UniProtKB/TrEMBL annotation:
<dbReference type="InterPro" id="IPR004839">
    <property type="entry name" value="Aminotransferase_I/II_large"/>
</dbReference>
<dbReference type="InterPro" id="IPR015424">
    <property type="entry name" value="PyrdxlP-dep_Trfase"/>
</dbReference>
<comment type="similarity">
    <text>Belongs to the class-II pyridoxal-phosphate-dependent aminotransferase family. Histidinol-phosphate aminotransferase subfamily.</text>
</comment>
<dbReference type="InterPro" id="IPR015422">
    <property type="entry name" value="PyrdxlP-dep_Trfase_small"/>
</dbReference>
<protein>
    <recommendedName>
        <fullName>Histidinol-phosphate aminotransferase</fullName>
        <ecNumber>2.6.1.9</ecNumber>
    </recommendedName>
</protein>
<keyword id="KW-0028">Amino-acid biosynthesis</keyword>
<keyword id="KW-0808">Transferase</keyword>
<dbReference type="InterPro" id="IPR050106">
    <property type="entry name" value="HistidinolP_aminotransfase"/>
</dbReference>
<comment type="subunit">
    <text>Homodimer.</text>
</comment>
<keyword id="KW-0663">Pyridoxal phosphate</keyword>
<dbReference type="InterPro" id="IPR005861">
    <property type="entry name" value="HisP_aminotrans"/>
</dbReference>
<feature type="domain" description="Aminotransferase class I/classII large">
    <location>
        <begin position="54"/>
        <end position="384"/>
    </location>
</feature>
<feature type="modified residue" description="N6-(pyridoxal phosphate)lysine">
    <location>
        <position position="246"/>
    </location>
</feature>
<dbReference type="Pfam" id="PF00155">
    <property type="entry name" value="Aminotran_1_2"/>
</dbReference>
<comment type="pathway">
    <text>Amino-acid biosynthesis; L-histidine biosynthesis; L-histidine from 5-phospho-alpha-D-ribose 1-diphosphate: step 7/9.</text>
</comment>
<keyword id="KW-0368">Histidine biosynthesis</keyword>
<dbReference type="InterPro" id="IPR015421">
    <property type="entry name" value="PyrdxlP-dep_Trfase_major"/>
</dbReference>
């Protein structure tokens, strides 16, 4: 007897005649492990409105310039051999990555996106009752990766939305097996310096794996290089993860990778599915690495429009709207005045634009907005200004689109 039936018909004698109460003993059924049942499902970026209309997506940090034409051609060419298994060792990709970044191919593990690599790290190095540590407002995959293996997800306090190395170190216990740090971080866009990252590593026990998630590293200026790969090359307990989903514009290809000590990579490969990536994704990723012009153009676009958009948000300062300083391809915008993040989220959606509202991550007062095409960013800035005015806080004169 479902709640729907109960609500749809009155509980009269007639109702009982046609639907006699049946409470059979519960059938045995597979029960998810309690730590799996405790997982809050991942919520992806919206692509359609409540009415099903297609939206401009500023909700998943995808590349507004698309994909390298060379990568697209390689992806398409892979349809010539659909009956053949992909190379389970991804040898050509690991060699291409090794040559591109000056890394040893045998110390690279490939994943179904870097999400899988993050999961492999938890799966190989943490288990029931262990602790996995990350910063509050960290990437939403970390708690899922922790719970999946029965480990406790532990959140350290942030410092003004950024990673607080002291808080992380203070939260380390004898049970801490893995520490995840995204740099730049998602959803905040904040950045941890090379010196701070080195200090974090130096303060961790050597049997604790530090995972430096560099999904947005290509958006950093050269002087902000965080030294992650150098730590992974020289230390026994550091893994760096990278992805082709962001600046390379290959989110649909599902290719990520990790670089670390041989023993760490070897353990992760033991639990990796043998054919975890498709041929098209592998071939496209190799081609994408070779298209430096596309990557440079993507970074230049991001620099320009992230800077412009941050300026527009700063001009709304007297409305209680402000931006967390970002070094990634998105900006976390805080709504601390009369216009709420929820109202702004729905208002932008009504104007055809999807952003990421994150009440489930402790950020009901914030929207994460991907840096999109110029015209779209101008629309977002104008809409925020208009909505702030409608909410009763008058933006200062002179700025705006
Ligand atoms: C987008 C993202 C990833 C990876 O995504 P994949 O598509 O699985 O490679 C990893 N970490 C962070 C912080 C991200 O934002």
């Amino acid at each position: 007897m479902t709640a729907l039936a109960m609500g749809a018909l009155p509980a009269s004698g007639l109702f009982l005649e046609y639907f006699p109460p049946m409470f059979p003993p519960a059938e045995p059924a597979p029960a998810p492990k309690p730590w799996i049942a405790a997982i809050a499902p991942y919520v992806g970026g919206r692509a359609t409105s409540d009415t099903g209309a297609k939206l401009i997506k500023l909700s998943s940090n995808e590349n507004p310039l698309g994909t390298s034409p060379k990568a697209r051609a390689a992806f398409a060419a892979a349809t010539n051999a659909l009956e053949i298994y992909p190379d389970g060792a991804a040898s050509a990709l690991r060699e291409a990555i090794g040559a591109h970044y000056g890394l040893e191919p045998e110390r690279i593990v490939h994943g179904t996106g870097s999400d899988e690599v993050l999961h492999l790290a938890a799966g190989a190095f943490a288990g029931l009752g262990d602790e996995i540590l990350y910063v509050r407002y960290g990437f939403s995959v970390y708690p899922i990766a922790a719970r999946r293996v029965g480990a406790h997800p532990i959140e350290a306090d942030d410092r003004d939305y950024a990673t607080d190395v002291d808080a992380l170190l203070a939260a380390v216990t004898a049970k801490t097996r893995v520490v995840y740090v995204a740099n730049p971080n998602n959803p905040t866009g904040t950045y941890t310096s090379r010196a701070e990252l080195a200090r974090l590593h130096a303060g961790l026990p050597k049997d604790c794996l530090l995972v430096i998630d560099q999904a947005y590293t290509e958006y950093l200026d050269p002087e902000d290089e965080d030294g992650g790969l150098e730590l992974a090359r020289t230390q026994p307990n550091v893994l760096v993860t990278r992805t082709f989903s962001k600046i390379f514009g290959l989110a649909a290809g599902r290719i990520g990778w990790g670089y670390g000590p041989a023993a760490v990579i070897e353990a992760m490969n033991r639990i990796r599915a043998p054919f975890n990536v498709a041929t098209a994704g592998l071939d496209a990723a190799i081609a994408a690495l070779g298209d430096k012009e596309f990557v440079a153009r993507s970074k230049a676009h991001n620099d320009t429009w992230r800077g412009w958009f941050a300026g527009e948000i700063a001009a709304l300062g007297n409305t209680g709207i402000r931006a967390v300083p970002s070094k990634a391809n998105f900006i976390l915008v805080l709504f601390e005045g009369k216009l709420s993040a929820e109202t702004a989220y729905h208002g932008l959606m009504a104007r055809g634009i999807a952003t990421r509202w994150l009440p489930g991550q402790g950020l009901p007062h914030a929207l994460r907005i991907t840096i999109g095409e110029e015209a779209v960013m101008r629309r977002v800035a104008a809409a925020l200004r208009e909505m702030a005015g409608e909410a009763g806080s008058a933006p200062s004169e002179g700025e705006g689109a």
